[in-house]
Amino acid sequence: xxxxxxxxxxxxxxxxxxxxxxxxxxxxxxxxxxxxxxxxxxxxxxxxxxxxxxxxxxxxxxxxxxxxxxxxxxxxxxxxxx
Length: 82
What we know:
Layout: H1 4-11, H2 17-25, H3 37-50, E1 56-59, H4 65-70, E2 73-76
Parallel strand pairs: 1-2
């Protein structure tokens, strides 16, 4: 799991991007939580740039727009009213 501190300090720094990508690719899934919308989109773009992979991100709010638009496949979650 990558949080705001990990992404800011290491993963999205140009010198560490490929190491982050190599590590992430060894995992079955990568979850980026409590990070900025821009960072979410940057993770998606990093994968698309260096891997021949279909990406999927799921979002439920307006702050997820940049991440979702950057993906190969988009999924929007609509909350049902109580």
